[in-house]
Design a protein that fits this description.
The protein has 286 residues and is of the alpha/beta class. The chain contains 10 helices and 12 strands. Helix 1 crosses helix 2.
Length: 286
Amino acid sequence: MSTRYPIPEGIAASVAQALAEDIGSGDVTARLVDAGKQGRARVIARENAVICGRAWVDEVFRQVDAGIKIEWRVAEGDSVVADQRLFTLQGPARALLTGERSALNFLQTLSGTATTVRRYVDAVAGTGCRIVDTRKTLPGLRRAQKYAVLCGGGYNHRIGLYDGILIKENHIAAAGGIAAAIAQARALKSGVPLMTEAETLEEAKIAIGANVDLLLVDDFDLDMLREAVKLTRAHRANGGVTLLEYSGGATLSTARSYAETGIDRIAIGALTKHVHAVDLSMRFED
């Protein structure tokens, strides 16, 4: 399957786990259908959405029965409207029924994430501000959800605890202050981006002066954000690299006001934490 988004690893294992918990010792209800019966079904969206999860759907039906044929009508990241057909399935009727729920579970969840992200991206359009995710993901689906963020037009923060140092409030307290925490982080020579939170403008000035890769300002009001923007822009004009990110409470109704201050990024946990699954439906055709 061709896609403009990098497919994450581990899809086969994730699908196998989903099928195992759903099928267990066997799909007893599917035995109501004759074993030799062939079927054709269509899947539609029942609401407007951004589609994400094709690779998971493909893998579900591949594992259930490799003879099932899937004809996609939409691409990954496409916007669709209610009652639009997404794909058509053809193959053994029992297998179509067995794979239905697991396939739709992946598609509705990842499309839900992508749809939410697109709404935030649209809300800040034209400001130059990026919408980024967090580690507040569904257990076991982090890479899948972060992939969905990309499909929705957003950007990924660090994947986990291993690919970026993020100094937070408790790290600062334990280290004896933000300057000490940054110094200790630099001494690690980890080779990963160095990021830190700041709860005050004074902490922000220290972090910018230390030329961290990313400064996260937590719950700053608009005036404080504007001041932090001035500081980071002046720093970058003199050769610094620090980017500025707001986190802590942006919503669809407030995201634009934060973006218009000139910040580089807004981190929103709700993108992956508060999932509204897209309403989908599969129906057999005569």
